Amino acid sequence: MNTELLKARQTQYVAYVTVYVVVVLTAVAMVNFLARRHNKSYDSTANKRYSLSEQTAKIVKGLKQAPTITYFDQPRGFPHAKDLLDEYANLSPKVHIEYVDPDKKPQETREAGVTNYGTAVVQIGANKEEAKSFTEEGITGAIIRTLKHTTRTVCFVAGSGEHQIDDSDRNGYSKFKDLLGKDNYVAKTVDLLQKAEVPSDCTVLVVGGPTHDYQQPEVDAIKKYVEDGGRGLLMLDPPLKIGRSMISDNDALTSLLQGWGVTAEKNLILDLNPMGQLLGVGPQVALVRNYDSHAIVDGMKGTATGFPLSRSLDIKNSDKTSVQKLFDSSETSLATSNLSSPAVDPNDPKNKKGPLTIAAAATYNTGKQDSQGRFVVVGSSSWAANSFLNFNGNSDLALNAVDWLASDEDLISIRPKEQEDRRITMTQSQVNWVRITSQFLLPLLAIVMGVSVWWKRR
Length: 458
Fold this sequence. Notes:
Glutaredoxin; 18 strands
């Protein structure tokens, strides 16, 4: 009887174990199957360093044709490349990834024009572009260049003290020029004084903070360009009269803008928000964190931008234009009309209280079908200069504005993120304290706790 009972229990135990093993193996197999079909990951870094940006996701998911990304390298480099390329493949089932060893397939490598290991080539239809670097920025840039195969030119007006695209100093626009190149724009300089006509190849015309008055022929050229369906980004600083770097009133240009429904006030915005001190800027930099609803700024919620030496704008619609505010200064800001002295009284009753409009976007009705003029006005020009372009969301705002003006709304988003240096900097005393804690205090604490447990058990 006992033997039969024992056998019955053993049989039951074996059955339980067998069922348990089968269930566990089935669960593991299902998890692996789902993991292969749905590759998901979570990026816990502060700036989402290991995740593709919103712009990349927006472009890849919106592709109508199937893109092929081919990576040329020796086989030992394939696993490293797979981490990034799998992120693109996970965005859309249309994305096809190929890996090519140039030593085994030299003919295919030569046809692709590849000369270096670690090179990625993007092909969509008959168009093919090589990534300038094997990074998200490089691959997404290649996708954009493949889609936008025509040349798009951003023309910067020169001749009246504007920021220059070849100037690498703090006030230059060389970083702005490089930024445009990543979105497949070509930047060049035009002088409307020599020929009062905007070249026909200009996709967008940029007026970047002139310090001298525009002559009437120059203003007429800008007027004709926009009202014939052209696109303009006009950045005008307040007419400061302090020191030797005085800025002219530029009445002819501001009168043109007023006729379009944008009045550039002759004042200077001061932001008294203490948040500026935490970000390392003074009251002369207007900080913006809240934005209106517009394609240029819809993707910038929660991103701060800064505008040094800004003037306020007053906007209204006109017979031909539809004007929309992009963003205001903070409620703690004010605008002073005292532009000839650095001493400003915040309690002066003549000051205008914030929030104050800093930027606006508008469309011009040309009366022609599929030929709409567009322009963006910003009451500051230094926000796009080399010294301030990398301030939080300024670079994204600059590209978003150009993309909207060029009717490239599909490119408007937050761009690929640069790697962030998050090293911890400590003083010598802090380093000594960490060393003492890790080498002496923590081991001593473990010994004391061990002796205490031994003593209680004893």
